[in-house]
Amino acid sequence: MEPAAPYTLVTGASSGLGRCAAVRLSGERNLILHGRNSERLEQTLGMCHHPERHIVWPFDLKNPDELAASLAPLLAGSGRFVDAFVHCAGMVTVLPMRSVDYRTAQEIMNVNFFSAAEIVHLLLKKKVNHQRLTNILFISSIWSRFGARGHSAYCASKAALDGLMRALAVELAPAIRVNSILPGAIRTSMAAQGFDDPSIVEKLERDYPMGTGQPEDIAGAIEFVLSGKARWLTGQEIVVDGGRTINMSLK
User: Fold this and answer.
1) What is the rounded distance in angstroms from the CA atom of residue 12 to the CA atom of residue 58?
2) Catalytic residue set
3) What's the angle, vertex CA 174, arms to CA 144 and CA 164, rounded to 5?
4) CB 17 within 8 A of CB 219
5) Which helix (H) or strand (E) holds 157?
6) 3-class DSSP string for 114-149
7) What is the span of the domain harbouring residue 143?
8) Could you report the per-residue pLDDT of 21-64, keeping only the tens digit for each?
9) Model confidence over 183-208: pLDDT tens digits?
């Protein structure tokens, strides 16, 4: 029988922040790469260091009630266990509140919040993960703290994620560290529409003292929080936003 091997589960690894984080982590960690699109997941796998060490998990997080039946078999009887979980998957739909019906809000909450809660619930089961989980990291957003027109459901989902982080940090200590990273404006495919608008880009460049960010800026923060260098760090909302949230300049 093969010896048990630790894996880091990265959701949303088929693009954007998740893909960048996966590639960054793949040199030192075995990864379970999650994404909705199998073809893009395979592309991520091909970009990783030591691709033979990693496995892909295609699944649509809009259906968290089916999550356990999909993920548990990857771990059961395989000699694998998850010691770190990074929830990079995210969904945003820009709509005024009058246009946000229950179905739209539910899908956003499922991807951004409920799926993360369900994965944690599953990984805490002794029969599934053998009490091996030691690190949980949610990729939230600075919009969990602030408001933005057309982002009501998105803001609410990220605020819920940060609330879950704080509760779990207390409940699961000292065995498991739990934190959130709150990025500002990052040039990803999910944010492409905004960055294609010159007026929006001009405003962002005014509002961000260090300019807008790249996925690598968040991947580096993820790598640090998961590492032993952050062993005393838990229950924290770690803002990585190029100074946006401290900029009160009027111009």
Assistant:
1) 10
2) 154
3) 20
4) yes
5) helix 152-172
6) HHHHHHHHHHCCHHHHCCCCCEEEEECCHHHCCCCC
7) 5-187+215-240
8) 999 999 999 999 999 999 999 999 999 999 999 999 999 999 99
9) 999 977 665 556 667 877 888 888 99
Q: What is the CATH number of the domain that holds 138?
A: 3.40.50.720
3 state SS of 199: helix
- Tokens 């998957």 sit on residue: 89
Question: Which pTM value belongs to this model?
Answer: 0.94
Residue 201 lies in a domain: no
* Amino acid (1-letter code) at residue 21: A
Number of Cβ within a 10 Å radius of residue 172: 17
Is pLDDT at 144 greater than 50 in this prediction? yes
What region, left, alpha or beta, does residue 16 occupy, with left being phi > 0 and alpha being psi -120 to 50 degrees? left
Q: Report d(CA 143, CA 184) in Å as an integer.
A: 8
- Whether residue 111 is contained in a domain is answered as yes
* Mean pLDDT across 141-155: 92
Q: Per the structure block, which two tokens stand in for 52? A: 């033979």
Split into its structural domains, the chain has a count of: 1
Residue type, 118: E
Give residue 2's identity as a one-letter amino acid code.
Answer: E
